[in-house]
Amino acid sequence: MKQRILIVSNRLPASAKRRGEDKWSLDISAGGLVSALLGVKDVDAKWIGWAGLYVPDEVGRRSLTEALAEKGCIPVFLDEDTMNQYYNGYCNSILWPLWHYLTLPQEDRVTTTRNYESQFDAYKRVNQMFADILFQHYQEGDVIWIHDFHLMFLPKYLKDHDINMKVGWFHHSPFPSSEIYRMLPSRLELLRAVLCSDIVGFHTYDFARHFVSACTGMLGLEGTPEGVEDQGRLTRVVAFPIGMDSDRFRQALELPEVKRHISELSQRFAGRKVILGVDRLDIIKGIPQKILAFEKFLEENPDWSDKVVLLQIAVPTRTAVPEYQKLTSQVHEIVGRINGRFGTLTAVPIHHLDQSIDFHALCALYAVSDVALITSLRDGMNLVSYEYVACQESKKGVLILSENFGDFDMWLAAEHGMFLRPTHGQWMTTMPEHLNMDWVESVKKEPPDLILNTVKHHLHGITTVDVVQGSRTVEVRSAGVTKGAAIEHILGEIVHSKNMVNPIDYVLCIGHFLGKDEGICAFLDPAYPSESKMKPKAGSLSLDGSDRINSRNSPSRVHKAAAASERSSPSGHSTTTSNYDWREGSSVLDLKGENYFSCTVGRKQSNARFLLNSSNEVVSVLKELATATPGYKSSAAD
Ligand SMILES: O=P(O)(O)OC[C@H]1O[C@H](O[C@H]2O[C@H](CO)[C@@H](O)[C@H](O)[C@H]2O)[C@H](O)[C@@H](O)[C@@H]1O
Ligand SMILES: O=c1ccn([C@@H]2O[C@H](COP(=O)(O)OP(=O)(O)O)[C@@H](O)[C@H]2O)c(=O)[nH]1
Q1: Of 211, 342, 495, 546, which has the most beta carbons under 10 Å away?
Q2: 280, 281, 282, 386: which to mutate for ligand 2, most atoms within 8 A of CB?
Q3: Which letter does DSSP use for residue 169 in this model?
Q4: Strand pairing partners for 170?
Q5: Which atom of ligand 2 is nearest to the CA of 387?
């Protein structure tokens, strides 16, 4: 028997449209929560939520309930006034901005406060309505999986009814720092209600940490490594980064209909690079900023105006909320201005669509675009970025997720140091040249609980890889490819490229690392007893390579530029092997253990020698270091 799961979210995966007194059509709802949960398989799931419209009459409610039942969905019917206060008001005007570090409504404090109280009442009422529907469908042994901030009281209402219900609550948005969260008048009640869950999940460790510190700081509860404890009762708090069903996208690309879309779009935009934006028209997605940045690009690069197009799919969302209405007008105004300014009789630089598009057209757009541009000011996860990558297996376009560091002289390391790049250079790889990757495909098909054994079985006797088990992950890495080795490698590259003759006497390594990567904190410390660390010479670590090139764990299997072969980098672009050969170097880099300063941020259980409490403290330390540097000049970039 499959485990029964009752999924509960404000919005059902099916949005209904009325086609007659008792006739309905159902479409997939837009938004990442629904996309993510479409990947939930191998369980007996029922989904409880709102079907996206008001249904005042009994005939309509009964017939819609029947239509939804065929899809495993159970509707909660909400009237217009309640929905307005609960969804448009409390959820989307109060909570949503707060999760994303935007301020609460300030316009008219008296009205706002009055509205706030009735909106909060409506919020609790709706949570109770969800609980009542759930009680009708609950069977002993069911797992109840509640989604998102619309339903923070639901865990409490369920546990008040039956303490034995198994309840998990997952938050799809960022959970902000307490400095922001404390602005919310009902902050304590909401925390207490959520803590009635058995387990609480967030996308990232930082969001989980913010939640725990709100509970400890505001409710005076105890934070433990597992979660939050209240009088002996533990609520587990865990980071579960959400994913999506990538096969759904890859398989769609094989459909004739999608191929037809791809061919039409390729012809339509022939000779132009396509930059794609796909967002709900939401205040957090940075859509005006994206369009203004594109305008700046056109201003600064007039040669590009007829060679590039920004294709923005702006899915209408929360259209009754004033902030969203303002955003829509603002975006239209900017798009109109830019198209008027840079358009020609035959082409405009921005194609802006205020509509959702069907799944097949979306897959085709992902597949043909040269660039996907994500500019969210803050976001819970952002599945659009995953989906773009899933559809780019052959084209290998560019996903822009953040400001890529072009103004700085620094190194980037990806995939644990397998790929390295100076900001003004090419990706290079430390990957051994003849690594056997045949096992990868078979391992991908294994059920998660068997993966570790299968991986071990496949890799038995292979000494060129390390298998590292995390709490919910199994990583197979090229032997010796670790974050610590990446640092060492980068230092070698710097010494080599700058022809340095004086030893580096100060390396500061600051970060917040998962347990399995903690080795980075002590990698260059001779006292560190890790197996994956290369053996240092007694007392100091000479990086001239003589003691590591024959080591099984050596990361330094790099080859001269002349022998460079092309590999695939994290962005999918071709990559050369590193051009520095450790064997060539003399002892120019002689880093003593005491010159390597490792520092953890926030996490007390660490191998690091030093602790800073927050990223603000990191910034202060870096500023102090910078100002103490001879020749330092302050600038706006500070
Ligand atoms: O239901 P709506 O009000 O129309 O909004 C759509 C969804 O928006 C939010 O999605 C979040 O969930 C995604 C998946 O975890 C995540 O990638 C994204 O960053 C979030 O913004 C909201 O949290 C959902 O409840 C809404 O259904
Ligand atoms: O016309 C569209 C365009 C996009 N999406 C989907 O909307 C989701 C957006 O999710 P994301 O996590 O990026 O952000 P959210 O909208 O949930 O904040 C993605 O799965 C898209 O495939 C959609 O349903 N219809």
Answers
A1: 211
A2: 280
A3: E
A4: 147, 201
A5: 22
- The residue type of 398 is V
Terminal CA-to-CA distance of the chain, rounded, Å?
Answer: 60
DSSP codes joined into one string, 560-618: -GGG---EE-TTS-EEEE-S--TTT--S--EEEGGGEEEEEES-SSSS-SEEESSHHHH
* ipTM of the complex in this document: 0.99
Say if pTM beats, i.e. exceeds, 0.90. no
Residue 159 alpha carbon to ligand 1 centre in Å: 26
The lowest-confidence range among 106-110, 246-250, 407-411 is 106-110
User: Could you give the count of Cα atoms lying within 13 Å of 272 in the half-sphere of its Cβ?
Assistant: 21
| Strand duo 507-511 + 540-542: pairing | unpaired
Are 19 and 25 in contact by the 8 Å Cβ rule? The answer is yes
Q: Is the CB of 35 under 6 A from ligand 2?
A: yes
Q: Is the CB of 383 under 6 A from ligand 2?
A: yes
**How many angstroms separate the CA atoms of 592 and 202, rounded?**
40
Alpha-carbon distance of 600 to 513, in angstroms, equals 8
Report the C-alpha gap between 289 and 375 in whole angstroms. Answer: 7
| pLDDT tens per residue across span 396-416 | 999 999 887 878 889 998 887
- Is residue 279 in contact with ligand 1, taking CB distance under 6 Å? no
- CA 130 to CA 86: how far, in whole Å? 13
Q: CA-based angle 319:11:49, to the nearest 5?
A: 140
Nearest to 431 by CA among 417, 421, 442: 417
DSSP string, 388-399: HHHT-TTT--EE
Pocket of ligand 1 contains residue 317 by CB under 6 Å: yes
